[in-house]
């Protein structure tokens, strides 16, 4: 396995900025105020002589509620790390919080490197002097925003890491499952239930999750990456800049995933925002599994109302499997990964051209396309044009005039015959070019003489 480096420290010392610098991504949200990061964020380090896993953590500040849950996440990151980078703020100097964290980290016995960030526009000698009082050795001076000193830091850290064995599998081989839904629908609780541990902060307050957190895990021979996302509210209710960035990260997670797990809150019912979010998933062409959470405790009337609302608002998700679950108690959760695997397999299945062409011929024979300007639309053959989502390309003539109703008819015929449950299906219609378009027919000498006789005859009759 790859060695693990955890970034720890007080809030707003630059841990997420350094994480983005080391992974050469923008996976971690960055803003100039404390407490933005709450969950552990994992990434593959690409700066330095060897590969490693880098973990971004929330700031250690003390307190209860969400702060206490954040610190539990930090402790778990420390326990699984091979090396700790203790980030400090050169502008703030050594604070009481830094002294407490230093004492706590010293007791872990882990390899530890103090890193003084934000040294831009400061004299290095003066910036480093105060931090020797922590008793952790010589601090490394960096400016994570500019990248100054970061490469040298990682050269040093990699010499202290254990030998990195070749990774068992690349991230591309994992099935990426994005858990999306409205705020407080139970997404983080569901992920913790699937993993069997308190991996992400789950709190009974909307907006607890701010960043999109990727969590790799294995179940037997199956490899997954769960992506916990921020809840998406209606645009009119979004005023906080951080929440706007969180929504962008959620939409990016939908684009990047293989399967979307849409979590609905049964107690709040199916809302307009649920339909909008489902529309984003369908437009992205992602395989889909729907989990109706908080189903326990509802009476028969409430359950029937949820079913009716689902048919009315989310009827266009007829291809997706629906599971009624309780993330808190675990009922129904065990089937979600199995359904996600089936949906992903259907989304990436190979569809042979002879089979598609035969299904197209059967569909046309059962129900002919309409006439356009007195001419019948002809659909000649079909083949696969892409995967995830499956794309079926149909060739014919006048296909641009094919009505939307007939397209839906073809989609339903293909989906039913191929058993493509769990994934949207797209059609691409292509018309062949007429080789004689724009060309005048040249008459033979005999045809020209016949035409002239006909014109003479008409002239004499007049």
UniProtKB/TrEMBL annotation:
Composition skew (Basic residues), residue ranges: 439-462
Assigned keywords, A-Z: GTP-binding, Nucleotide-binding, Repeat, Ribosome biogenesis
Superkingdom, taxonomy of origin: Bacteria
Stretches the record annotates as Disordered: 431-462
Tagged with keyword Transcription regulation: no
Record's keyword annotation contains Ubl conjugation: no
UniProt-annotated binding residues for GTP 1: 9-16, 56-60, 117-120
Domain EngA-type G: 3-165, 175-348
Binding site for GTP 2: 181-188, 228-232, 293-296
Family of the protein in this entry: Belongs to the TRAFAC class TrmE-Era-EngA-EngB-Septin-like GTPase superfamily. EngA (Der) GTPase family.
NCBIfam families reported for this sequence: GTPase_EngA, small_GTP
Subunit annotation: Associates with the 50S ribosomal subunit.
HAMAP family in the record: GTPase_Der (MF_00195)
Job description of the protein: GTPase that plays an essential role in the late steps of ribosome biogenesis.
The name this protein goes by in its record: GTPase Der
Organism: Thiohalocapsa halophila
Gene from which this protein is expressed: der
